[in-house]
Amino acid sequence: MPHSEKTSKSISAIFYPQPFWRYALLFQSWSQLGSWLLIVLLTTLSIYSFLGGLKESPPLAGLLLGVAFGSLTSVVMVVPAQFRIASNNVESIKNVLLALENMRYVESYRIRDVVVYRQKLPKILRWREGEVKVRRNPEGIVIDGPRSILGMVRAKLMNAI
């Protein structure tokens, strides 16, 4: 069996395990919505006060809309997704942990068979939605987390195997 064929069968595609309506809401929690609103308001007011002395500064409403729409990218990046690895050998888990470490993720806590990793950022800049959960079971490894991060982890695993 060619090497790449074995790799593609041992690592699943990324999929979206939650019901469609959860993704349609875009914001996955009230705390995520609240911190996003706070960031948008503080950023808008900071830019507005900085530009306040200029003759042709943008209207506050226009600036608010621009910041809000521009920052939705960060919300879309943490949409929850999942992929699986058919093997739970030491090498597979080591590759997952190395990929997370390279993206500045650190172990946050453990609950039974799940290890949760968070970004190594100040708390104010982290969302719970940015956490990656790694679960080992007899069938292999299940990895849950933000779509953007899982895409990078999966790509690194595909190159490593």
Write the layout of secondary structure elements.
Elements: H1 3-10, H2 20-24, H3 30-51, H4 60-77, E1 80-85, H5 90-102, E2 105-111, E3 114-119, E4 132-137, E5 140-146, H6 147-160
Antiparallel strand pairs: 1-5, 2-3, 3-4, 4-5
Helix pairs in contact: 3-4, 5-6
Name its key features.
161 residues, 6 helices, five-stranded antiparallel sheet, alpha+beta
Number of strands: 5
| Estimated structural class | alpha+beta
Strand content: 15-25%
Number of helices: 6
Low-pLDDT parts are 1-7
Order of strands in the sheet with most strands:
1-5-4-3-2
- CA-CA gap between termini: 14 Å
**Could you spell the SSE succession in H and E letters?**
HHHHEHEEEEH
The chain-level mean pLDDT equals 83
Helix content: 40-55%
Radius of gyration: 19 Å
Shape assignment: elongated
Biggest β-sheet description: 5 strands, antiparallel
What is this entry, summarized?
With 161 residues, the chain is an alpha+beta fold.
Q: Would you write up a description of this structure?
A:
With 161 residues, this protein is an alpha+beta fold. α3 packs antiparallel against α4 and α5 (90-102) packs across α6. 50% of the residues lie in helices and 20% in strands. The chain is elongated, with a radius of gyration of 19 Å. It is built from 6 helices and 5 strands; from the N terminus they run ααααβαββββα. 17% of the residues are buried. Mean pLDDT is 83; it is low at 1-7. The chain has helices spanning 3-10, 20-24, 30-51, 60-77, 90-102, 147-160, and strands at 80-85, 105-111, 114-119, 132-137, 140-146. A 5-stranded antiparallel sheet has the order 1-5-4-3-2.
